[in-house]
Every structure is written in structure tokens, then in C-alpha cells.
Write a structure and sequence with these properties.
single chain; 368 residues; Rossmann fold; elongated
């Protein structure tokens, strides 16, 4: 009974996940998956799934539990019409919230976008202590009891003692048959990574542009965190000046000043030099803007800083230009002009939410 329920539940989960995978592009572009996010999973509202439910039979139909009455006999006041408002016609739309782990989501994303696995470039691996099960012992806690080895010992003992009956193979282990897994602490190499997000919050970046950034950042986080054990995420906002903020402030701040992109790049570079030694960290920088900068001189300063200071330190620097009716859109053209051959600098134009899909492919598709 229980095994059947578990099997049916597993089958139902597979159906739901299949529906998510088939509609993943829609979720990516519309941001529907990030409404409720926990530490290790997201709750996704899935529409148009028929849920199992009880259904009353026809009135003239007899059945178990009908008592002495004949089929169709009214039972009390059950057949009287209510005095309240009439029920609506037509069937409601069912929504089911399904919990999907971030690891499963990353695997779906990788399959959908055909993403290569990230290979850390030129950074020393750090080491951490892990428990590794390495042997079998005759003593230990019940939680570490090895069922197969215990069964084997009991079977061996009964055969050797002549107690084993092939026609009635009942195997009952005794205390001396019990076997337990043993473990030891080992050093396991791990790679660390940091993601540094930068966003223009000047007056030309509105709520629509910030929602695009928020959705793209969620999927970037999901993929990179599936590739590394330890992840730091830092947030920088800028208009004419730059400052580090928390995640909530990053997505909801709006200023009214002009734009000086170099202020964000300078703070990003200082953060890397101060806190993230290149021997220990894989570094990913993402900058989102509408492409409007204060002056051509500041753009030249940004290019110089990227060439000499930032690009030599990072695994990848990704610039996403979010289209705005108020932005000039010039900055991405300048970057493409100066960095035609540098594979570490990746650019993508994000005209609307539908373009997030392409931007993710641009940013993550090279396995940096």
C-alpha cells in the first residue's frame, strides 16, 4: 500500500517536472518561478493540472451505505436548494504549487540552453573537511547499520550452522550479525566563487528594467551556484556615485541623478583587491545598465579600467544593456568596439523580458 502511494507520488512529481521543463522558456522570460524562493528550493505555481478529487454519483444510483430506503429517496434536507447565491458555471482553473530544488532547476536550465559545465580557470582549490564512509565495523549506532552486510552475515551463519531452509528461507539476524558503516574525516578540494552584480539606478532605469535585471540575476545565481560549493554574492548600485547595498535595496532603489559608470567599476575593482585573492576565488562580474553614460571621457576610463584591472582578475565580465526609452544605448557599442577579441567580456542587449532567454545563453553559454 505504502509502496504504491510512493510510486504514484513519484510518478506525479515526474509529470509536474516534465510540464515545468516544457514551459521553461516561458518561466524564464516571465519570472514566474521566483515568486517564492527558499534557501534550497523555489515554489512554482503550475496551472492546468487536473487534481484528484471525489465526485458525487447520480441521484438514482444505489450503492453501499444506502440503508433501508429505495434508490432516489430524499435524505432529510439534502436535496433542497440553498437560499444563497447560485454557484458559478464552468470549471475553475487549478493551481498547484510545486517545490523544485535549485539543483533540479539548474539542470533544467542547462538542458534547455545547452550550457556547458563551468571549469574554474587558474585558481587554487581550497579544502574543507568532509565525512567519508570508508569501512564496516561490528559496532556502531543503529543509524549507521548496513542492512545488506547484516543480512549477508546472518545468511552465512545460518548456512554454516545448518539452520538455513531453502524451502522456508527466513533470515533473522542476531547481535553478532550486525554490521555498521564507519567513517573518517577527509580533506576535499572545493572551489569558491563570488558574483558581483552592478546596476545603474539613475532616473532612466525604471521598474520594468529592474524587473528584467531581477529575473536574469535569479537564473544566473541558480546556474553558478550549481557549479560551486561556496558562493558569495555582492551588490553595487550606481548613478553618478556607487555604493554597496543588500539584495533588497539593489532591486528596489531608484535615484534621479546622472550616470557615471566608472564609479561602479572602481568599487568593484577595490572589492576584488581587498577581499577576493585570485588564488582562492573564481570571480564573476555582471553589470546592467541602459547604456547611458555621463561622457565619452568616462567611457574611456571604464575601458581602461576593464583592460588593465578587472578583466585580468575575473572569469567573466558580463554587460547586459537593458533597453530604456530614456537611455542612449551607446555604451554597449563602445565596449564592442574596444573588446572585439577578448572572450572574458561578454555583452548582450536585453530589449524586453523575452530577451532574457537569449541573454542567459550569451552570458553562460561559454562555460567560463
Amino acid at each position: 500500500m505504502i509502496a504504491g502511494i510512493k510510486r504514484d507520488h513519484l510518478r506525479f512529481k515526474q509529470i509536474v517536472k516534465g510540464k515545468i521543463k516544457r514551459n521553461l522558456k516561458k518561466y524564464i522570460t516571465q519570472g514566474e518561478m521566483i515568486g517564492r524562493q527558499g534557501k534550497d528550493y523555489v515554489s512554482i505555481p503550475i496551472a492546468q493540472i487536473d487534481l484528484p478529487r471525489f465526485k458525487f454519483g447520480k441521484k438514482q444510483q444505489g450503492g453501499v451505505g444506502q440503508g433501508d430506503g429505495a434508490p432516489g429517496t430524499p435524505l432529510g434536507q439534502g436535496d433542497q436548494e440553498g437560499e444563497g447565491s447560485k454557484a458559478g458555471q464552468g470549471e475553475g482553473k487549478h493551481f498547484l504549487e510545486v517545490d523544485v530544488t535549485l539543483q533540479e532547476l539548474a539542470e533544467m536550465l542547462a538542458e534547455e540552453l545547452e550550457l556547458p559545465r563551468i571549469e574554474p580557470k587558474g585558481h587554487r582549490q581550497t579544502e574543507s573537511m568532509r565525512r567519508r564512509y570508508s569501512g564496516i565495523n561490528t559496532a556502531g549506532p543503529d543509524s549507521l547499520r548496513h542492512i545488506k552486510r547484516t543480512y549477508r552475515e546472518a545468511l552465512k551463519r545460518q548456512i554454516l550452522s545448518g539452520m538455513y531452509n531453502p524451502k522456508d528461507p527466513v533470515i533473522i539476524p542476531i547481535k553478532s550479525d550486525f554490521r555498521y558503516r564507519t567513517w573518517k574525516n577527509v580533506q576535499v578540494p572545493e572551489n569558491n566563487a563570488v558574483i558581483i552584480y552592478m546596476m545603474d539606478v539613475s532616473g532612466s532605469m525604471g521598474d520594468e528594467q529592474k524587473e528584467i535585471v531581477r529575473t536574469a540575476s535569479f537564473w544566473i545565481d541558480t546556474w553558478i551556484q550549481s557549479q560551486y560549493k561556496d558562493i558569495d554574492v555582492r551588490y553595487i548600485i550606481h548613478d553618478a556615485t556607487a555604493k554597496e547595498v543588500d539584495q533588497n535595496t539593489f532591486y528596489h532603489t531608484r535615484e534621479s541623478g546622472g550616470t557615471l559608470i566608472s564609479s561602479a567599476y572602481r568599487l568593484c575593482n577595490e572589492m576584488i583587491d581587498r577581499e577576493y585573492p585570485l588564488s582562492d576565488w573564481n570571480i564573476y562580474a555582471f553589470h546592467f545598465s541602459d547604456g547611458d553614460n555621463w561622457s565619452g571621457e568616462d567611457t574611456k576610463f571604464c575601458v581602461e579600467m576593464l583592460k588593465e584591472s578587472i578583466l585580468p582578475k575575473v572569469n567573466a565580465f558580463c554587460y547586459g544593456q537593458v533597453e530604456s526609452r530614456y537611455g542612449s544605448g551607446q555604451f554597449i557599442k563602445d565596449l564592442l568596439g574596444f573588446f572585439k577579441e577578448d572572450e572574458k567580456l561578454i555583452t548582450s542587449k536585453i530589449e524586453n523580458k523575452e530577451a532574457i532567454y537569449r541573454a542567459l545563453k550569451d552570458f553562460l553559454g561559454k562555460g567560463k
